[in-house]
Amino acid sequence: xxxxxxxxxxxxxxxxxxxxxxxxxxxxxxxxxxxxxxxxxxxxxxxxxxxxxxxxxxxxxxxxxxxxxxxxxxxxxxxxxxxxxxxxxxxxxxxxxxxxxxxxxxxxxxxxxxxxxxxxxxxxxxxxxxxxxxxxxxxxxxxxxxxxxxxxxxxxxxxxxxxxxxxxxxxxxxxxxxxxxxxxxxxxxxxxxxxxxxxxxxx
Length: 203
Hints:
Blueprint: H1 4-12, E1 14-17, H2 36-51, H3 57-64, H4 70-84, E2 90-96, E3 99-104, E4 108-116, E5 122-132, H5 138-162, H6 168-189, H7 193-198
Parallel strand pairs: 1-4
Antiparallel strand pairs: 2-3, 4-5
Helix pairs in contact: 2-3, 2-4, 5-6
């Protein structure tokens, strides 16, 4: 099964969190030690991005500790179970009889507070800025870099031709070749259009 579509959707959604739960995803202040729950979330996001699929507990723990002990594994498991899953930050998946995996429910979070509307209904309103943890797929960055490089080459070819540093037949040949490569890369980037726009990468 390919998880690309599901991972892309999770990059785009914003997860509402309570005042308590938002602390699990926020970076600690300078004078405070970073919460282990926050470290676990960052590790989970990183390993999922590298593997492009849900990951096992061992993958997360191995990223956090050089030589993890059973105690450290148990602590990470309990923190995921008792804080990150109940708060809606992490999802636990059973992909097989003994195959338990984890996925972030999203990579963008916002604190919400419960208020009463004019009609007397209890609703949740967003509070403060969106907290983001983007594990940008390497494929997107690679394609963007290729596109930028090809556009620079095309500009250089145009400039050299205008200054009569290359002949017209060579100019036409090179321009056709690099223009075709650029169009191919742009077409591939279209598959990540929403993510590219969200990350302010110009396409």
